[in-house]
Amino acid sequence: MSICLRRREFIAGLGGAAAWPITARAQQRDRVRRIGYLDSGSADDPETQTLRTAFVQGLQQLGWTVGRNARFEERYVSGNRDLFRKYAEELVAQMPDVITARGGGAVGPLQQATPTIPIVFAGVVDPVGGGFVRSLARPGGNTTGFLQFEYGVAGKWPELLKQIAPAVTRVAALRDPSFFGSGGQLGAVQAVAPFFGMEITPIDVRTVGEMERAIAEFARESNSGLIVLGTTLANINRDAIIALAAQHRLPAVYFRRRFVTGGGLISYGPDPIDQVSGAAGYVDRILRGEKPADLPVQAPTKYELVVNIKTAKALGLNIPATVYARATEVIE
Question: Residue 11, by phi and psi: left (phi above 0), alpha (psi -120 to 50) or beta?
């Protein structure tokens, strides 16, 4: 009798042990997880908030609801690059389970602040060149994410400029020489420019004052145009660049939609909402146990061509039917 009893107790114990992992997994899903978010933009900027909302919605669709099983710690640099380090250290001090970095300027300070907390970036031009990951296929370390764009995309910018402003033969490529992704973009632009009868002149700037002087000097000659390379400097000084292009009547191609909605002529680049949605997916996978080192860095899958008709008219340009046909958005 006692043997049978012990046998029943043993079997019951086995049943409890088998059920424990299921219960533990359920508790793992339900416990509150901390998610850090470091953004190079401003908290009151409409596009920044649109992207933040898309990220949070992406998490919610994957089962992570802020206030229930997720806690959201966010910081916004508002264009002040000196704040990246401060905010990175503040987020790391919160001991989050994972941190999302939007923009290349956020990744380095976060990596310096923590070698262990997983980091998922959205919108970095060259994470290998920047030393953030070992390779795109095998990132290694604690960091992975989504490219802003591949360098080949920059080769589209001279083509678009020629289509929308056929008279342009001289093009200034505005770049920040301290930004690790500038060289690859410039190389792609220079490689295709001769096919469109264009001569590319790199303009290296680090301040708005340098930018004003360099663009004014370049625009003195006729048939001039402008290509704005994708850099943190350009994002921070977006309004100033748009105003300078208008002041000197330079047809300009940009790398992001927000330049065109702000009065720029034309842009071709990835859909940033697609990038933050992808980042939410990687955050979910990390929270469920996967390692950043095993998640490959991914290139954008959605691109958008945006044209501002009002700006084109102010410059005396006609939008070709071929550009209209390809445009994902036309601003009137």
Answer: alpha
Pairing of strands 33-39, 70-76: parallel
pLDDT tens digits, 98-153: 999 998 889 999 999 999 999 999 988 889 988 999 999 999 999 999 998 888 89
Domains within the chain, CATH numbers bracketed? 27-149+271-301 (3.40.50.2300), 151-270+304-331 (3.40.50.2300)
- Whether the CB-CB separation of 272 and 51 falls below 8 Å is answered with yes
pTM: 0.83
CB-CB contact of 200 with 168 (8 Å): no
Rounded CA-CA distance 240/63 in Å is: 41
Cα–Cα dist 254/269, whole Å: 8
For 80, the token pair is 């002040």
Rounded (10°) angle between helices 83-93 and 104-113: 50
Tokens at residue 145, please? 């994410």
